[in-house]
Amino acid sequence: ETGVTQTPRHLVMGMTNKKSLKCEQHLGHNAMYWYKQSAKKPLELMFVYSLEERVENNSVPSRFSPECPNSSHLFLHLHTLQPEDSALYLCASSRQGLIGYGYTFGSGTRLTVV
Amino acid sequence: SQELEQSPQSLIVQEGKNLTINCTSSKTLYGLYWYKQKYGEGLIFLMMLQKGGEEKSHEKITAKLDEKKQQSSLHITASQPSHAGIYLCGADGRGGGADGLTFGKGTHLIIQP
User: Least CB-packed of A24, A60, B68, B103 within 10 Å?
Assistant: First the structure.
């Protein structure tokens, strides 16, 4: 366990479904991130929340909607996804301004869109 | 934007042998992170380098950052089956800021018994 917990571990959803991914950390971090990992591509940063403020990422389709209700929780709401959205979605957290301690990642949610 | 190139893309090494993985950045590195990932799982933090010429070791893994802060290497001595996985280097844009990390494509390491 890294201290960053993601649920569910696996998710299969239809293209018309609405689902949410959850991430939780109790490390005292104040920044949280969503990453997408597809086959043969580098990890892609999707969203950043710093001190519960969202940093815009215009390249992410609107069918992905993040929510950060407090510094310990992060959600990724999914709706009308496409098969190409199937990937491993990773959550990470860090302590802004604290160099040298790394970004801590969760175990990921394996998403399959059918 | 910063890009990281990792080499080799994949590596098959006999158990007990040494190996090196490289990570080259298109821009100066303010923070360079090494992670290990088991297939389909999350990333495990290995080491973080900041200063030019810096070198860190943990058990049989040594990471170095060159003086110009544009290239890093990860060296594993006397490899073991537990070293198998994907090794990723990640760059921090400003060091300490909440920008997230930019990653290379990873190096797939297979250890042959």
Answer: B68
Strand partners, B86: B37, B108
How far apart, in whole angstroms, are the C-alpha atoms of residue B63 and residue A63?
A: 39
Residue B2 is predicted with a pLDDT of: 76
Cβ contacts of residue A61 below 8 Å, gap of 6+? none
**How many CB atoms are closer than 10 A to CB A57?**
15
The identity of residue B89, as a single letter, is: C
Residues of chain A where predicted confidence (pLDDT) is lower than 50: none
Q: Which residues fall within 8 angstroms of residue B107, CB to CB, at 6 or more apart? A: B6, B7, B8, B9, B10, B11, B21, B86, B87, B88
Q: Please give the average per-residue pLDDT across B3-7, as a whole number.
A: 94
Q: What is the DSSP string of B19-44?
A: EEEEEEESS--SEEEEEEE-TTS-EE
Cα separation, A15 vs B65, whole angstroms: 45
Q: Do B106 and A96 touch (CB under 8 A)?
A: no
- Cβ-Cβ contacts under 8 Å between A and B: the total is 73
- Tell me the one-letter amino acid at B96: G
Q: Is A69 on the interface with B (CB under 8 A)?
A: no
Chain A contact for B9 (CB, 8 A cutoff): no
CA distance B71 to B73: 7
Alpha carbon separation from A47 to A5, A54, A89 (Å, rounded): 17, 7, 11
Digit-coded pLDDT (tens) for B15-53:
999 999 999 998 888 889 999 999 888 999 999 998 899
SS3 category, A99: coil
